[in-house]
Design a protein that fits this description.
Distance between the termini: 27 Å
Order of helices and strands: HHHHHH
Low-confidence stretches: none
Number of strands: 0
Helix content: 55-70%
Number of domains: 2
Number of helices: 6
Radius of gyration: 18 Å
Structural class: mainly alpha
Length: 116
Amino acid sequence: MILIAVAHTAVFARLAPWSSWLAGDLRNRTADSDSMATFWALPGGFVVVLALLGLLLGRAGRQGQHVPGYVGWVFLAWGALGVSLIGPSGFLTTAIPAGLLIAANLTARRDPRSRT
């Protein structure tokens, strides 16, 4: 998840009109549609939340905690919705962390030692 957030930022950060954003174009509603789309692709979108979720899940895993299965399933559904709306895109990469979260949940449910 962190890798997806970093890659997304690396792709779109070069396109961002940072100076016009800082000058207030977003607040004043003078930004054009490309500027708005780039804003929603970077700080206004999922990038920050996805990175934080990745950090949180990594910490939980290192501490031996289990994440509820619905986290992986919802993440997979979100990625599938994104692909269905815009076609093959970076949303396809959500299948990797979603699959890992789902597999970890199924494995934890089968292992009687993990029920602490």
